[in-house]
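Ops channel
N.P.: pipeline sanity check, posting one input/output pair.
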């Protein structure tokens, strides 16, 4: 009996897999914190024989090489990938044997030029499923523009053909096991569901229901911005990641925290946005663990800036540290635990108000004329926005901060409050007067009596 054990990384929208026949195991696209994989295999007495890499990832630093070295497994990477480390080179059509499992290598370009999928069968050759990496996702496909937009059309066409190849070579009941698509920006569109089959995708996935030209045009037109740290992942994965260190960083006292802030380093408060707004160390930033912490930290921070973590417990700091190492932020510079008063060392805490959309509507009705900044992405803004607001996507804030007036309070909103809190903390650290608009925003309906609009539809 062959079992597939998924290992989710919700913060990055990815999923790794352990496939086992009960004696040996094959691991697909492992994250960098490989102890999570060993926590599955070691208690079961499983011997990992192969570690499979579907592609050189752009959204996280792989744990594949490190895991293969740890357990003495074959590290299977496309022979055409220009990597600088020893690997077991594999190509289209190769077959791997791991106990009662049979694995066929399938070249499925589209997300990258050298992307591979791995079709899994039992010892008798009966198909079980296919590990599709960033190729065929649930209701979607991997985005084709991460290697440069100049390749997007070519790769999108490869993606269409790769999906049709998988649909043609595998039975309808074969399970689909993607790596991306659970919230990852590697997905071309929002993927749906937690499981699927080839037959289901043939019925519902646009790549398998639309003509090639229509699929390509719609795919490229729908691409949205992706995190800036992606630029660092491919080169890191090709070079061979260093061994991670998840030991606790040094403790920093209030004087050291102030020195680090004065030096331009980032001191990051991991608490919720409402807790941060109520009182925080002056000039610290809020990236709460209750949201997309590492995605937005990695997207916004000037790469290489030292990071010090503030958490109420050491467990929170350890969780954040684990998230950071997955995208190549190797070590926090320092940490501090406890409460804001502990971190401030007697200095006065900074704070700012938190309001609702109803409060915003009432302020407008009174004639207060609050200056409102919408931190959402372009595609979100196009779906609907509050009339009279400035649009400034969060990932552009540092480069466009001077566009925000400095002589009046700035009210900040996004889709749920997380990104607005990040922006509020950044602007507050620069001495701006800020107000956090917290709550869910519904662009297709009137929110708390506010006047809404939508982008004009594009004309051919």
């Amino acid at each position: 009996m062959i079992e597939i054990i998924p290992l989710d990384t919700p913060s990055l929208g990815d999923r790794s897999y352990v496939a086992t026949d009960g004696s040996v195991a094959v691991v697909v696209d492992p994250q960098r914190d490989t102890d999570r994989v060993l926590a599955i295999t070691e208690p079961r007495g499983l011997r990992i024989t192969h570690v499979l890499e579907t592609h050189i990832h752009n959204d996280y630093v792989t744990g594949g090489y490190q895991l293969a070295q740890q357990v003495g497994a074959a590290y299977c990477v496309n022979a055409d990938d220009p990597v600088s480390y020893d690997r077991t080179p594999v190509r289209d059509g190769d077959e791997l044997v791991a106990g009662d499992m049979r694995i066929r290598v399938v070249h499925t370009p589209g997300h990258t030029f050298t992307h591979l999928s791995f079709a899994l069968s039992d010892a008798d050759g009966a198909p079980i499923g296919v590990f599709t990496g960033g190729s065929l996702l649930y209701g979607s496909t991997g985005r084709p523009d991460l290697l440069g937009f100049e390749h997007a059309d070519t790769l999108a066409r490869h993606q269409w053909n790769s999906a049709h190849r998988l649909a043609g070579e595998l039975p309808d009941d074969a399970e689909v096991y993607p790596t991306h698509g659970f919230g990852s920006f590697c997905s071309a569109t929002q993927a749906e569901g937690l499981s699927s089959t080839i037959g289901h995708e043939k019925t519902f996935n646009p790549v398998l229901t639309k003509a090639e030209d229509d699929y390509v045009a719609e795919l490229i037109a729908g691409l949205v911005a992706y995190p800036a740290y992606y630029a660092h992942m491919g080169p890191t994965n090709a070079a061979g990641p260093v061994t991670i260190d998840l030991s606790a960083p040094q403790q920093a006292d209030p004087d050291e925290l102030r020195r680090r802030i004065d030096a331009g380093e980032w001191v990051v408060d991991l608490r919720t946005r409402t807790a941060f707004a109520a009182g925080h160390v002056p000039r610290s930033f809020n990236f709460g663990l209750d949201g997309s912490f590492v995605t937005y930290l990695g997207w916004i921070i000037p790469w290489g800036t030292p990071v010090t973590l503030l958490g109420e417990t050491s467990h929170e700091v350890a969780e954040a540290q684990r998230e950071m190492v997955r995208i190549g932020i190797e070590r926090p510079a320092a940490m501090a635990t406890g409460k804001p008063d502990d971190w401030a060392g007697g200095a006065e805490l900074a704070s700012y108000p938190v309001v609702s959309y109803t409060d915003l509507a009432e302020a407008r009705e009174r004639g207060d004329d609050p200056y409102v900044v919408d931190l959402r992405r372009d595609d979100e803004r196009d779906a609907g926005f509050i009339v009279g607001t400035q649009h400034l996507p969060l990932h552009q804030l540092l480069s466009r901060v001077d566009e925000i007036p400095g002589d009046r309070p700035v009210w900040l909103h996004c889709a749920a409050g997380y990104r607005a809190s990040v922006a509020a903390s950044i602007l507050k650290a620069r001495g701006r007067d800020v107000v956090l608009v917290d709550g869910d925003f519904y662009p297709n309906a009137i929110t708390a009596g506010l006047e809404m609009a939508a982008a004009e539809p594009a004309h051919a």
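N.P.: looks fine end to end. Residues 152-169 form the longest helix (18 residues).
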